[in-house]
């Protein structure tokens, strides 16, 4: 491997769709301990949050002016709204946290940032909700990756 496994875990965690749900098991498969995999994946996924919250409002502006981008944005927005709009409308930032914290496909930091921008959640509420959601999802994936009984030992 040309790079250390930590670099691969960090980069995979920053990818949309895969995020830390795929990065933690990848790190374990590459020989890192579950705890090391969790930390590198957490760092990679947390780096996405301010980037996405900063870029998506700009993307919305671009999508309104360029038809090719508009279709892609509307499709993404519709998918994310379907998954989490009711929860965020009802619970606010707590709903955004829960949306990201449950490690299901399509509910990570990227989707959470899209949802926050689309629904107009202020950054000062969106950022901590997304970051804490990423930590919670990472802990759940860590437990599942290390096994429920063995996973608890990594948290000590």
Automatic annotation (TrEMBL):
InterPro entries assigned: Sm_multidrug_ex
One Pfam family recorded for the sequence: Sm_multidrug_ex
Taxonomy, superkingdom: Bacteria
Keywords on record: Membrane, Transmembrane, Transmembrane helix
TM ranges: 38-63, 91-119, 125-146
PANTHER family: TRANSPORT PROTEIN-RELATED
Name of the protein described by the UniProt record: Small multidrug export protein
Top-level taxonomy: Bacteria, Thermotogati, Deinococcota, Deinococci, Thermales
